[in-house]
Amino acid sequence: MAKEKVTVSVEDRLRALHQLQIIDSQVDKIRIVRGELPVEIEDLEDLIVGLKTRLEKLTNELDEVNTGLSAKQNSILDAAELVKKYEKQLKNIKNNREFSSLTKELEYKNLEIELNEKHVNDLQAKILHKKEIIEESNLQIKDREEELKVKNTELEAIVKETEKEEKALMKKSDKAQKVIEERLLNSYRRIRSSVKNGLAVVSVSRDACGGCFNQVPPQRQLDIQMHKKVIVCEHCGRILVDGNLLDG
Description:
Blueprint: H1 2-6, H2 10-34, H3 37-90, H4 96-177, H5 182-194, E1 201-205, E2 208-209, H6 218-226, E3 231-232, E4 239-241
Parallel strand pairs: 1-4
Antiparallel strand pairs: 1-2, 3-4
Helix pairs in contact: 2-4, 3-4
């Protein structure tokens, strides 16, 4: 394959390069029609993943709080049972020492119940708050997923509409690339990636470069028209070709 490229004339390579630029510009236009949709879809997908990760964390936190609430409620029940037991024992106390000891235990258990009831109230408020956040997160995920579905449908419709045309252009692009030597093709790609409009190959119009619009000297214009060598704009670095090249 490399040997075949060497035998191709400079004029044919320039013609193929010019043709490749026209094809690539048409592909660019098709992709512009898609606009920012692919990027928006990717951003939405990332956002949904983030929201689901956050939701999972919130759900785990809610489970932990519920576990803590159950533990506190069980502690209250256990303490309440002991309070009943101590109150019953108080009725059968024989001496002051036992009375004093049991009264202190009873007081301690009542304080423990009071403290745990406060913790229960705090945990119940925390659970309510977390449930509200979880509900809000679920709604956000649902909304974003619906938005993603709409954008995917929209993109699929655009791709379906332009897919046939793009495939045909890509075949033409491959055919044109086979005529161009690797070094020149790499230069073309490098220039294309470095300019906003993707124009790496431009013709001279009204004595000026079709890319940066700087004047092209008469002798340079004559060299371009001769099709004997690859000439670049000395201002922007774009490859300059004869506008009538494709007619030849």
